[in-house]
Amino acid sequence: MKYLPLGDTGLYVSQLTLGAMTFDREDGMFGQLVGGTGQELATRMVDLSIDAGVNLFDTANIYGMGESERMLGKALGSRRGDVLIATKFNNPMGGGPNAGGSSRLSAIRECENSLERLGTEWIDLYQVHSFDDTTPLEETLRALDTLVQQGKVRYIGLSNYAGWQIAKADGISRRMGLERFCSVQAYYSLVGRELEREIIPAALDLGLGILVWSPLASGFLSGKYTREASGEGRRAKIQVPPVDEARGYDIVDVALEIAGRHDASVAQVALAWLLHKPGITSVIVGARKEEQLLDNLAAADVALSPEDMARLDEVSKLKREYPEWTPRSIQRGQDLASRLADMG
Ligand SMILES: NC(=O)c1ccc[n+]([C@@H]2O[C@H](COP(=O)([O-])OP(=O)(O)OC[C@H]3O[C@@H](n4cnc5c(N)ncnc54)[C@H](OP(=O)(O)O)[C@@H]3O)[C@@H](O)[C@H]2O)c1
């Protein structure tokens, strides 16, 4: 397992993170949607991940409506200080107008509730789960800065922000001398590369680490879904993230062929492709079963060649959108005809 600094910080995280979204009771709300592991399997998954060198565990207050944090805290037990916990807030944890969001009230209350459920005195990475356009960013950032000053939180991150929202937040923190977000948690997979347009450039320019969620597009890229067979699993219940299946199966075909040459699984190739991408700090793997986790953890050892990467890049490439096809910079003295030809 390799370890990389999280953005501009001095904190090193493993290239694979264990996602705890499946940690819930089987009959819980998340359990029914994404497959509740129960405590015993959750503990086993944490053990296997630590054995493989994983040092970062990602959860959220909303996963299992708190059950995921409870199970993760229990599973870590006395090893809590040896690893890093990332959690999130913003989704509503009950009824009423203030049950969610990124207000000062919500940020502080949810942090305290997460600390209690996790059974810890600090959260290593506290993330805003998604952008709240009803709360001024200044208010959220001041509240998060307070939590860092109080020692309840070590680092702060964001998730699911647009490129301009990331840049605006970073500008506010710098101008006001507040704690800066150090990481972006975003959806990225071979069948979902939209973040390459605005989010990755923003993160790289500002020195933020990138944590990838749903790297297998909720199992679509696990190899069990083919044109012929739809496989079993969560994708049948919730189509999130959305996948253009016709195009997706062309990508799976290439991944399958590359997997064959590496004696690897399709899931491992899909994860390894992300691990080879510049700017990616850590890929958050999810699993509902022990064998899925073992399969995914082994992706850290799959070395794709430049030719493998080029083939996967080509079959999964994004359509060029405005303003990407306009000339990057004006060459002084260039006439209009040659500029238009450049745009061709
Ligand atoms: N920030 C956010 O908004 C956000 C959103 C989503 C997730 N996340 C984070 O990202 C983590 C991972 O997300 P994810 O669970 O959606 O990841 P994913 O890797 O895209 O999907 C994981 C699911 O795919 C199936 N699967 C995984 N490995 C497999 C394998 N080797 N063979 C066959 N099937 C396999 C399992 O579901 P089935 O068995 O049901 O098919 C598993 O639960 C979460 O735990 C969470 O920490 C964050």
Report what the structure shows.
The chain is of the alpha/beta class. The protein has a single domain, classed as TIM Barrel. Helix content is 40%, strand content 15%. It has twelve helices and ten strands. The strands form two sheets. An eight-stranded parallel β-barrel has the order 3-4-5-6-7-8-9-10, surrounded by seven helices. A two-stranded antiparallel ribbon has the order 1-2. Strand 1 and strand 2 form a beta hairpin. Helix 4 runs parallel beside helix 5 and helix 8 crosses helix 9. The chain is globular. The model has no long low-confidence stretch (mean pLDDT 95). Bound molecules: NADP nicotinamide-adenine-dinucleotide phosphate (NAP).
Features:
344 residues; alpha/beta; TIM Barrel; two-stranded antiparallel ribbon; 15% strand; globular; binds NADP nicotinamide-adenine-dinucleotide phosphate
What's this, in brief?
With 344 residues, the chain is α/β, with parallel strands linked by helices. The protein has helices spanning 29-35, 38-52, 67-76, 104-118, 137-149, 163-176, 199-206, 245-262, 266-275, 290-297, 306-315, 336-343; strands spanning 3-5, 12-14, 16-19, 56-58, 84-89, 123-128, 153-159, 181-187, 209-213, 280-285. The chain is globular, with a radius of gyration of 21 Å.
